């Protein structure tokens, strides 16, 4: 692989605008997740679509979290989280965790258990990944949290909730 030279970089067009980028990203379907944590700094959670697999050895996924988010300090303090992938019938919960609703009200709207890390696992989620944050890096406005998966809980069959075209869509599930 050849690295770009300074001359080649100077010839590149101007970066894509924020609006053009956001419009283009609306054409990428993504699973809807509620990411949770709990510990000495409190209980917190937020809705995220910026979650993906990194490696299966060790099992690792990544979660992107805006550094200006009200929950950022809580997640940084705990270094553990759970990614709860939502089913189609959990749209209202996604909206609740995606807004400015009080944390106690968010968590009161569903049933939760815990696993290895103590982070809240959503009862009825399609799948829950209980993780420790192994490291993070900052890019632009966000921190990329690399999360080693310590435990997994999944349903036998579940309809998936995805976000595409700035709207929720349900995808029929199949037996696992």
From TrEMBL:
Catalytic activities: FMNH2 + NAD(+) = FMN + NADH + 2 H(+)
Superkingdom per UniProt: Bacteria
Keyword terms, alphabetized: Flavoprotein, FMN, NAD, Oxidoreductase
Keyword Oxidoreductase: yes
One of the Pfam families matching this protein, by short name: Flavin_Reduct
SMART domains in alphabetical order: Flavin_Reduct
Family: Belongs to the non-flavoprotein flavin reductase family. RutF subfamily.
Protein's UniProt name: FMN reductase (NADH) RutF
UniProt source species: Stutzerimonas nosocomialis
Name of the coding gene: rutF
